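Before the break, one more example. Copy the sequence into your notebook; we will annotate it together after we see the structure.
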Amino acid sequence: MSPPRTPRPLFSVVVPVLGETARINALVDNVRAAGYGLPLEILVVDGDPAGGTIRAIDRQGVLGLTAPRGRGSQQNAGAAAATGDFLLFLHADTRLPAGAFQAAAALLEDRAELGAFSLAIRSRNPLLRCIAAAATWRSRLFALPYGDQALFLRRDIFEAVGGFADIPVMEDVELVRALRRAGGRVAVSPLSVTTSARRWRARGILATTLRNLALLLLFSLGVSPHRLARHYPPLPEPPARDQA
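Here is what the structure looks like once it is written out:
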């Protein structure tokens, strides 16, 4: 008797990581809970050549890869190894809501070539809640969601636009713009992903927000992302209470 065939994944979830040993298993659990009952695959792409985060994974069925450091190159490597019809790019400090994959598939089949979720920040700080709401409205009004909103699109469309640019920052912005230049539609789901507040906590809420806006403006004016990367420090290690 031949072994049962594994169904082809509907979604391939690509997670670029670097130094995320404290939270990677919680992320895998979140993806599987959000996609319960659906054929999914999870690809964790480590920018550490030694694969430190990959070695920390103790869940079965996760494909671990290493790639040159940088979200663009890491996400491209994951997409190249993916077998699902749809790709969803998930940052390590972002969590998906229940029903995320059904909502994403419906959006891509009906309204858009690229989608993302609304944004929430894991904090009780009212200023951070306002910042999350403003980011959601910005992404809807200007059709320009960021990577922390979990971008998703069909794999063939991702390949057609050339994937992520191999740049140290703004690879998410450049992907969305490339798709729009090709005539693609962008939509934002009313469902919200929830991202960690650790970057705002580490650098200060106002300073981080103003810096992000300044970097986007400078990138739009043609400043090299390699120059901008000097002002975009790596994420701090998550504290124990922020591993979810």
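Residues 11-237 form a domain with the Spore Coat Polysaccharide Biosynthesis Protein SpsA; Chain A fold (CATH 3.90.550.10). The longest strand covers residues 186-196. Try to locate both features in your own notes.
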